[in-house]
Amino acid sequence: xxxxxxxxxxxxxxxxxxxxxxxxxxxxxxxxxxxxxxxxxxxxxxxxxxxxxxxxxxxxxxxxxxxxxxxxxxxxxxxxxxxxxxxxxxxxxxxxxxxxxxxxxxxxxxxxxxxxxxxxxxxxxxxxxxxxxxxxxxxxxxxxxxxxxxxxxxxxxxxxxxxxxxxxxxxxxxxxxxxxxxxxxxxxxxxxxxxxxxxxxxxxxxxxxxxxxxxxxxxxxxxxxxxxxxxxxxxxxxxxxxxxxxxxxxxxxxxxxxxxxxxxxxxxxxxxxxxxxxxxxxxxxxxxxxxxxxxxxxxxxxxxxxxxxxxxxxxxxxxxxxxxxxxxxxxxxxxxxxxxxxxxxxxxxxxxxxxxxxxxxxxxxxxxxxxxxxxxxxxxxxxxxxxxxxxxxxxxxxxxxxxxxxxxxxxxxxx
Length: 415
Description:
single chain, Globin-like, Alpha-Beta Plaits, 3 domains, five-stranded mixed sheet, 17 helices, about 60% helix, PucR_C-HTH_sf, RsbRD_N_dom, CdaR-like_regulators, PucR family transcriptional regulator
């Protein structure tokens, strides 16, 4: 469990008075040699008594504790004693520890519990050295302590790296499986091989991540690293909410997320909108599927809801069909849509008139509130509305005209 491979080279670089003298090295080798006959006993004590203090260790299968872990302990102790006696050990000797670390990661043992076994073993080895040391071997003990600390650091580093590499590989494989499940659900492919019942229902979300503003004064989708970071934050927050894995599939405009149908949309605003770290705008469309076969249609609905909420300038939030029902209905495929949208053609060169009609709608036909929003006089609002009525032939100050303008604006915004 230690590494003294660089000790001699380091000693050669230091003044002689700073390194252990030949007599101390010889005594340390002799002490280590006397301990070698105790290796089997100590490994047995570790697996039968000292490691059992760890709850996760006690839950391991009996054969793993008495065979595999005991063998690893024996190899670790012998490795240290060989190096303590001045015999070089090849770096390949670390392979058994890194392989065991990868196995423990695959089995789900916590890294802290795995590392604790190495520190417990190091303490047991130190106790053995102290019990075996003879009077006058204090300098040899100090040398062995230094060697043990160096070796323990090398082994712990190698074990930690191997464990984390295996865990990351497992996580990557798990995420890829989740992406494949999400893709299959969204495209209507069979998902029985993933253990998903045909009757399972889902809450389907369409997430659109947008910049709060652009140089042109509008909004545009986040792209590249910024988009991926935002979606990762969203996934992490949702995993904490549902206490489990989240199915996510990215596309060119954001991504789809599938959650258990029991999740309430009222609980989603904070984890979704709160994921905006740089002031970006996050629009989420939400719809529920009846079963697995219904997921593609539901995803199309949630995407349309998100598109409408985005195009109509709604703030960051989670939107369901009821929130955009009129716009959703009016923006559906129909032969009359182009004709209805053409209502605004006469105002193409008068953007202030379009902005005034929109503000008039947004402020419930209150001319004074509309004027404040536009930073103009209320009479200016009246004049602009009258001009729009004259140019289009439809008066936005009437109920029927107001509905026509609302529909035309929605259709224009949705392209």
